[in-house]
Amino acid sequence: MECLPHKKTIGIWMSDKKSQKLNWKEFIKSCASHGYNLVRLDLDIPLEEQRPINVFLHKLTDVIAAADHGDSKASVIINRVEQYLSNHPNITVIDPLDNVRILLNRYCYYTILQNEPSLYKQGIFTPSFAEFTTNNIEMNIEIMRQRGVKFPVICKPTIAHGSKSAHDMIVIFNEKGLHVCKPPCVVQNFVNHNAVLHKVFLIGDRYHICERPSLKNFYASEDLEPIYYSTGEVCKADSQSTLSILDPHDKADITLTLNEDKIKTIIRILRKRIGLLLAGFDVVIDNMTGSHAVIDINVYPSYDNFPNFFEHLLDSIQEAENRNVNIYNNGDCNGVYGEEFLGHKINGLINVGMDPIKYGVTGMNIN
């Protein structure tokens, strides 16, 4: 990538797999129009030996997860990055590593949501959950009882990033099915939602909502065996999974309507409690109550179909950088985003899917 003079520099790192999917041509073009050079960082060599940067944009989730679980190479990389950022507090980080760590652990972020009373007051909840740290089924049944978790449940790995298995789930219908759980894992009440998932993608104060297929309705049963599935297969836009086909007696007579005010409430809570510029979350609507359940949160999601993705990203980076300059100059640089930093208008959330401006490049990936 050619570096142009008199421009600020965004240093970017993501895995080779992610990098191959990125529409680099459009990204470089958008960076230039916003006054930035774009350089790819090599984390195998000291960052001090590479081009100085103003912004550090990364997708380090898998590396952070590996380092936190004892991988020596990953630990060297993360230590190197953290030391570099500590030495250069004026660099704007998208997103701070400590904030990212919160979303690497499902039990951690479910607990944050569960402890937020303002959600429940507005008909928003996270389904009851429990963490298994042992293979002792009797002990796990008691943990479920104490936590109010009832069948059917979804069993998910506690670690939300770092391996393919992080997205492998199991629907369990009864106590005898609990033997398939591999701790550490989280079991969570399954909410019947008529096989419709709402994915919300965030860039600062901008958001976009996509509807995706999801699991059909399930009920507790002593006869059913556990069902294994991958969210990447069942919930992708063009999925043809039979697990998404409602049973005849479950045909919905009414449409479950997403309440956008509730989506905005969730966004504000996530900004306040977790503090990420780039994130996403999944919502399902309880087909009995209409309440909105937050069932997952993601760091730097795929942003498939996000209108004018690069433009919105760079606008948000500029806002973040301006805010970081003010923090740095005032001597209050602690790496944690305040609400006013995460959006230039705290109550001015923007649904980019409603934007009258004609869509440009959609998403961040090569079409």
UniProtKB/TrEMBL annotation:
Annotated gene: LOC113495593
Cited PROSITE patterns: ATP_GRASP
Protein name: Inositol-tetrakisphosphate 1-kinase
Residue numbers binding Mg(2+) 1: 282, 296
Annotated binding of 1D-myo-inositol 1,3,4-trisphosphate, by residue: 18, 59, 167, 199, 298, 302
Keywords: ATP-binding, Isomerase, Kinase, Magnesium, Metal-binding, Nucleotide-binding, Transferase
Enzyme kind, highest EC tier: transferase
SUBUNIT field: Monomer.
Binding-site list for Mg(2+) 2: 296, 298
